């Protein structure tokens, strides 16, 4: 995965590019379908473009997925940094409420469209803190584990049963 810029009529736009080689194509198609299902859902990185290419006759076809670039650090990193700051206790509750509200809003809409993320964890949640709780921007990334399903069909993969 890498970050680049692409030219748009409004100027240059930063994007994230992920390539799935032939032997991982099924995962790329799964992510592409999840991103299509998440089109227009706030707080989920949006699909910009997806295309296939083949470098040579010997290599298989690769899928390239381009998504909007999401500013921020992983939720795990942000939580660690904030816990080390002086005065963290006063900021914790308002920030966590804002972060969890944005995650919840995104998942509610995604699940309402019959899809689940499939790999939601702190590394797949990017947080841009801005200057305070009102400026916090959460973006959920990496829908490579996403899958269709109806509410009630989603199961925790690593649960002890």
Structural class: alpha+beta
Overall pLDDT confidence = 86
What's the end-to-end separation, in Å?
A: 35 Å
Inertia-based shape: elongated
Summarize the structure.
This protein has helices at 25-37, 75-83, 88-112; strands at 2-8, 11-20, 47-53, 62-68, 73-74, 115-116, 125-128, 137-140, 147-148. The chain contains three helices and nine strands; from the N terminus they run E-E-H-E-E-E-H-H-E-E-E-E. Strand 3 (47-53) and strand 4 form a beta hairpin.
Explain what this protein looks like in three dimensions.
The structure is a single chain. The protein is α+β, with helices and mostly antiparallel strands and 161 residues long. 29% of the residues lie in helices and 28% in strands. It is built from three helices and nine strands; from the N terminus they run ββαβββααββββ. The chain has helices at 25-37, 75-83, 88-112, and strands at residues 2-8, 11-20, 47-53, 62-68, 73-74, 115-116, 125-128, 137-140, 147-148. Strands 1-2-4-3 form a four-stranded antiparallel sheet, with helices on one face. β3 and β4 form a beta hairpin. The longest helix has 25 residues, at 88-112. It starts with a strand and ends in a 13-residue tail after the last strand. The model is unreliable at 157-161 (pLDDT under 50).
């Amino acid at each position: 995965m890498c970050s680049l810029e692409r030219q748009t009529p409004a100027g240059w736009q930063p994007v994230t590019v992920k390539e799935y080689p032939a032997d991982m194509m099924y995962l790329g198609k799964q992510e592409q379908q999840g991103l299509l299902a998440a089109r227009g859902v706030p707080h989920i990185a949006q699909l910009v473009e997806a295309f296939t290419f083949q470098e040579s006759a010997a290599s298989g076809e690769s899928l390239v997925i381009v998504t909007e670039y999401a500013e921020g650090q992983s939720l795990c990193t942000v939580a660690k940094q904030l816990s080390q700051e002086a005065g963290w206790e006063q900021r914790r509750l308002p920030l966590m409420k804002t972060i969890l509200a944005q995650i919840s809003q995104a998942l509610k809409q995604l699940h309402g469209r019959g899809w689940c993320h499939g790999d939601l964890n702190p590394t797949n949640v990017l947080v841009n803190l801005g200057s305070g709780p009102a400026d916090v921007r959460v973006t959920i990334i990496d829908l490579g584990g996403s899958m269709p399903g109806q509410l009630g069909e989603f199961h925790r993969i690593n649960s002890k049963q």
